[in-house]
Amino acid sequence: MTAFARRARATAARMHPELSLVSFTLLAHLEFQGGCRATDLAAHYTLDKSTISRQVGALEKAGLVERRLDPADHRVHVLHLTDRGNEVLVQVGDARRVAFQERLAGWSGADLSQFADYLLRYNEAAVEGPA
Length: 131
Fold this sequence. Notes:
It is built from six helices and two strands; from the N terminus they run ααααββαα.
């Protein structure tokens, strides 16, 4: 698992050297949610607000995220991907798919199916079980 995590961080660094794996995770979450508050990100990932603030600051500085007033509550800012943020996510997604296809090219259909089942089982246990 450690090797897997290291490889994921290294891959993220190659795809966009200024951004961390955490940054890509936050971008993907913002895309999936259609935007959210920084406090929602902190709660979702059980991270300190200061950590999220630093990450969001880096994403804003890179032009990947912008703050918009919440139309329902003008006291609240909601984070949204910029056009550039969407472009980066598409590029990263494409690069990841190519890398996965290359790594798994020699695997049989049965191996791929079993691998997918194990990943689903692992992720379900992570959600359901203790942290």
